[in-house]
Structures
1.
Amino acid sequence: MIASIFDLILTSPILQRALVASLFVAFIAATSGSFMVFRGLSFLTAGVAHAALAGAALGLLLQASGFAPWFSPVLGAVIFAVLMAVLTAYAGERGIAQKMEVAVGVAFALSMSIAVFLMYYLPPAMIPQIWGYLFGDLLLLDNLDIVLLAGTALSLILIVILFKKEFVYVSIDMEGSTAHGMSARGYHYLMIIVAAIAIALTAKAVGAVLVYAILVAPAAASNEVLKTVNGVIIGCFVLALLAMLIGLASSFAILASPSAIAGIVAALMYVAAIQVKRLRR
Amino acid sequence: MEGKHLTNHPHLIEAESLSVKYPNGELALEDVTFTTDASTFLAIIGPNGSGKTTLVKTMLGLLKPCSGSIKVLGYDAKREYNAIRRLVRYVPQRDHIQHNVPMKVKDIVLMGRLLKKSPPRFASDKDVDYARDALRRVDLEELWNQPFPELSGGQRQRVLVARALAGEGPILMLDEPMSGADHDSQVRIVDALHEYHEESQANIIMVTHDLNPIHIVVKDVLMLNRTVMGIGHPCEIMDTELVKQVYGPTAYIVELDGHKYCITHDSGIDDHDR
Ligand SMILES: Nc1ncnc2c1ncn2[C@@H]1O[C@H](COP(=O)(O)OP(=O)(O)OP(=O)(O)O)[C@@H](O)[C@H]1O
Ligand SMILES: [Mg+2]
């Protein structure tokens, strides 16, 4: 059994790409998802993934209409993600998470409306590309997707290594950090914009549904039970990777979408974490 | 060095017809003028909504005056806030601290030192020594390795006071550091700040809406109600006419051991502890 799995991995480039992609997505979840949960902004992940959808629709429309052939869907997705991030960060400049939550909600609704509005004008042949942003599939990745994921993961890891303390300080006490002379506002924007770009690029590769399942639930689960910042980051990596591996493995057994299974597993992990926390009391 | 010279500036705060307005048009401070000498232990008192937090934030350059000016150790808060922030250690009002980040108590206390460094902000042995000493001063040494979010409200306040004590810079600004703290924690906080002030001569600016617990340790009191209602030594401020004017007709003064205390309808009640 084990030998045949290895055989399959060695001979199937599709599976190899899926495994490598899972690894990179787990790194992205650990570095971006954890900090969004610390900042009280897990909802931003879902919001940005949908804003990316609207951006991609705009990109496709501009290409299809011949108005701006250079404007690629990925560019549109990133621009919309950054706009949403800036709006959210602006609402939270005083450090208050609730205000950002409202801003995300508004931007979420706006970008979904824009997406639906634009899709109405797209040639029907292009619609599946839009749905690709929503329901990407770990088993349908090409080499370009892998490069995109690798670049995103490595940049995020570097940024988190450099600014982990600053991001944590901004999350705990933005006003106090500013008052002590740290440029908290700059780090606040950096953290949210970088996360948004990462979410948009990851959504392009693996689909928005997997993005918010894998970037939010594992981080939230490990933040419930683990007691240090590094612990949560590592725990999030392990849970995210595990969810995707279970998704891939069971997609062979029961012919289901690996992203969907991974999402369900991740959600169950969060429920389990809450139970663990309750039992500890 | 110019910075050195200004740190020896004789006045801690110089406010000149300062007015501060919020974007919604609320005029939180109007025509505030006063001067306090360094080094002092200053209490800023006044009822809820009287502009205490607004004044502290304006001193830090977090809010901008709409007219007039305020200087901290000679630096203008509107233009030279970077210089002021280098001198200050600040504890914001309680509801500004988020508890969903899994930090240990030691990480919070060390923050007081690491925020003043430049990245990568590594903690040296000296930083750790200062942090431990600060936590000892508020009597919570044994919590060094405990998760901060799991502490009680009063313990958290003491840890935040320790964060200020651990840091460096000649000014500590604390916005209602005793809110949510029980009597014991209040006493620990007051004693720790008093002891630290006597030892280091650091200036302490403490916002509070109840002067009584700190009456005998503070040197100066500023009483605010949108503008300056009074400034002076604690017993000078505790004037029957004045407290009735600020806190309403039910407020009165009692004398105890030669000190005057103000009793208002909300004395001892902490309205931030909802
Ligand atoms: N962000 C804001 N936007 C608009 N108005 C504000 C804001 N913050 C405070 N205010 C108003 O400014 C006035 C002074 O508020 P401030 O917070 O300075 O009072 P305070 O003396 O610190 O009160 P408390 O004892 O409740 O902390 C109040 O009337 C308040 O409603
Ligand atoms: Mg206040």
Note: Chain A touches chain B at residues 37-38, 40, 95, 97, 162-163, 165-166, 168-169, 171-182, 223, 226-229, 231-232 (CB under 8 Å).
2.
Amino acid sequence: MARGSTLPAPRRGIRGAIAYRGGEGMVAWAFHRISGIAVSAFLTLHVVSIFLVGANPEFYDSLHLFYASAPGKVAEVLLGAALLYHALNGTRIVVMDLWPALTAYHRQLWRIVWVTFFTLGLPGAYIILSRIWETAK
Amino acid sequence: MSGAPRARQPRPKGQGRELTYWLLTRYTALALFVLALAHYTVTHFVYDSSIQTAEWIKQVRWNSLAARFVDWSMLVIVMIHSCLGMRTVVQDYVKGRAQDVVLGLLYILTATLVTLGSHVVLTLPLS
Ligand code: HEM
């Protein structure tokens, strides 16, 4: 058998973890992992800040000013994009895992993820970002 | 478990604890599809996020027990899901003794967040 026909052994460490080794689920998997970690990081900050609503409302309000700023609105859109992709792709995974017969349609499911992502995401991003120039008026 | 990419975690063989975690990740995911997306819609589209001060949360968002019950349920469900998810991530990238330490920190963080979140949603006076 030709040597090049086998996949290289996974390398250790971060380089190994993110190296491209092909396979069509690669993009779906990488985005799912990155978005899952990003949303978990936000969730940690979010729960702590909501805790302050009871413990220290003035401090909460001062932190919350970020949501009114332009960088805050951009961050909101990025959070929404990560959550929306993760939710859509996650549902694709759950559908195939709980109803394996549907795995035959994985290409269609993958296409539905992206069509839905942009159909909902682009108008959504516009609504949030438009508040930047609306409040500036 | 290696760092090799895969489309998703394969269903664990047999009936053990790993299968329970795998299924729990999926059931919580289905619940979150509704809860988390609805939550984002309410907090970022229905209302402008920037008006949601501490006083507003007290007067408007959390002025009903039903709303608090939904948010508390979401807190518990999302913490189970993200803890199990981050557990897989840690197991992929951290090996040996260090893995036990990092997993321990993850569980402490999860328990702390459930405690802080439950505290505020259950004790903030109803207005
Ligand atoms: C909104 C609905 C959601 C759905 C449908 C969903 C679905 C899923 C599924 C099916 C997995 C397992 C993937 C696998 O086994 O390879 C997963 C992993 C994960 N999820 Fe979610 N999830 C959702 C929300 C969230 C939220 C809100 C968070 C964080 C707060 C989160 C964090 C994670 C993490 C960290 C992983 C591990 C990623 C990995 O192993 O690569 N998920 N999600």
Note: Chain B touches chain A at residues 2-8, 11, 26, 29-30, 32-33, 36-37, 40, 44-45, 48-50, 52-55, 57-58, 75, 78, 82, 85-86, 89, 92-93, 109, 113, 116-117, 119-120, 123-124 (CB under 8 Å).
